[in-house]
Amino acid sequence: MIANSRRRELSFTLMELMTVVGITGIIIAIAVSGLLWARMSGSEASAIGSPRAISSGLPATLLVSFG
Fold first, then answer.
1. pTM to 2 decimal places
2. Is 13 left (phi over 0), alpha (psi -120 to 50) or beta?
3. Phi, then psi, of 13 in degrees rounded to 5
4. What are phi and psi of 60, to 5 degrees?
5. What spatial distance separates the first Cα and last Cα of the chain, rounded to whole Å?
6. Mapping DSSP to helix (H, G, I), strand (E, B) and coil, where does residue 11 land?
7. pLDDT tens digits, one per residue of 13-29
């Protein structure tokens, strides 16, 4: 009987486990949305930077080709 009582003291209840799972899910949802936002922001910056790089290198390329 004492061993059974001690086992209950050392174990978690279902409510405690469900609380941990819920909090973990919320943290993961926040992290994933932040990562998606950062990825989209990086793609936008790359899309803006690519034409600038092409246009800055174009005069030098034309000068070497036809110069």
1. 0.53
2. beta
3. -85, 165
4. -65, -40
5. 96
6. coil
7. 999 999 999 999 999 99
- pLDDT per position as a tens digit, 48-57: 888 877 777 7
Distances from the Cα of 12 to the Cαs of 16, 20, 23, 26, in angstroms?
A: 6, 11, 16, 21
CA trace torsion 23, 25, 31, 32 (10° rounding): -170
Helices (H), the chain: 2-10, 14-66
Q: Which residue type occupies 20?
A: V
Tokens representing residue 31 in the block: 């992290």
Tell me the chain's radius of gyration from C-alpha atoms: 29
